[in-house]
Amino acid sequence: MTMRKSVDTEIAMQGIGVSPGIVIARALLVEPGGAFKKRRISDDGSLALEQSRFRHAVLRTEEKLRQVREQFAAVMADYAAIIDTHILMLRDRMIFDRTLEIIVAEKINAEWAMDKALGQVETAFAKVDDPYIRGRFLDVRQVADRILCELSGADMLPEEIDEQVVLVARDFSPEDILHMTGQAGFLTEMGGETSHSAIVAKTLGIPAVVGLKEVNGRISSNDLIILDGATGRVIVNPQEELLEYYQDRQRQYQQLHLEVAQYTNLRPETTDGLQVRVEANLEMAGEIGQAFEYGAGGIGLFRSEYLYLGARDNPDEELLFATYRDLLAAAAPFPVTIRTFDIGGDKQFPAKAGKSSGFRSKMEKQWSAEANPALGLRAIRYCLREPGMFETQLRAMLRASSFGSLRILFPMISSYCELRQVKEVVARVQERLRADGIPFAERVDLGVMIEVPSAVAVADTLAREVDFFSIGTNDLIQYSLAIDRGNEQVAHMYEPLHPAVLRMISQVVGAAHQAGIEVGICGEMAAEERYLPVLLGLGLDSFSMHPPAIPYIKRMIRQSRAASVERLAGRLLACASATEIRELLQHYLSRHYPDAFPADTLAS
Ligand code: PEP
Ligand code: MG
Description:
By secondary structure, this protein is of the alpha/beta class. Helices cover 47% and strands 13% of the residues. The strands form two sheets. It has an eight-stranded mixed sheet. An eight-stranded parallel barrel has the order 9-10-11-12-13-14-15-16, surrounded by four helices. α2 crosses α6 (137-152) and α12 runs parallel beside α15. The longest helix has 28 residues, at 44-71. The radius of gyration is 26 Å and the shape is globular. Residues 411, 451, 472, 474-475 line the site of magnesium ion (MG).
């Protein structure tokens, strides 16, 4: 990143806000490894030395990564998997071997050779269709940046920073972010919502904006920066008026945070006495402490596939058992809903060093042949195709069931027969545990995720077979409106308030209650304050979301009247279009929740 002399012209930029919070602070530019030059090397002895310099830099990088892994093991246990992936990448043939080859073939220095190797890897990644896998190139670059630092002897982050600053770089790795606590925030040129760095920033509560394409040359160290981690807005050297506006917003944000925090430990109950459950969605078991700090009344969705996605090899039964047991014990007496392996579609294995073996390579081959992965061998379809792996997971879950209150949730169920098949596998696993004399809770609730339109249509039949439903609106909206949830071209058509979506939710709630079972929601819609009156009015019994949203949703619930939101839902169900629904809802929000929705903020 080139340095530029500070000028006081105000510049506004738009990136992707990945971790909320408003920061006003000076910029500090960080350039991993500093700028490097091309150096020609003529004699063979010096080339061998250059190769050895590179090997040593890789070794030192590995050593430091292992130290970071140890240091943060207790606080961020599950992110160890991310660091493991980075350690593996250090030895990736495409980077490690290729750099050594280029040093000799082109008679150049290690920095330059690695940069060339990286360029080749980038070209290969750019050809991959899947945006998730394409995004993993960021990890490769982060690893390369660390090696560059070792080659130059520079630190990734300055050792001591006197004041709180906004750190600015082409990119920061998750390891860098772990060292950032106490800093105001950060912004980067690279990155997207799904990057590991974004996940770590959100978990640590460090406001961040990524994917700011225009940073290069437009920000200098010491420039005054306004960073809005929710909207992705960044303003450099703001004029007085804008600065005052954001100082005001910052105060409001902090005040709101304090005000809303008071709801953390209050019961989610309406003013007329209707009680519902507010729970947490977790990707990693290590996030459980955070879930209860935010006032979760249980775990409504544990996305168990991340145990597979983040690990080098498939976790075995013992590792799964230990993870589930600890999770259940930590949450007791609250229930933990573990969703079985929902892999495929947009959740595939990250690119890794070396060749995949066994089941992984089989899966990768199958997936790469799929024209429509979202409609392909995903979630329960995959589990039924690979019963060995499914049974291992179920066995681990059932063994853990005596340590707390377990609910098992099956994703992407699309028919009655499929559900019957799943239940047969569960019965088989229970039978074997009994035969082996291994204890497990005889009573474990089984549930179905309602996220495929066919499951909505036959919800009454499915309801007779299970103990609860959980509506996955992320996928239900994608499949019913035919909008790829990861495709930015059609993102504007992704409409949670589409009459079809509301009617489907209503139909599912009706079928569940008719059969006397509970129905919750665990899609992102549950975390949005503006949808709460609609969902509550439609009759949902529980709401599961990322932990920081919990106090906000509890506040909405405690300011709602069940009789009133039910009437609202009835009126919305009669609307012909999303526009009509939105208008009615906006009017309702400003009348009934003026704190959360002052009339002048509703246009967005
Ligand atoms: C959903 O589809 O709404 C859901 C919660 O599952 P995921 O986002 O993991 O697909
Ligand atoms: Mg889903």
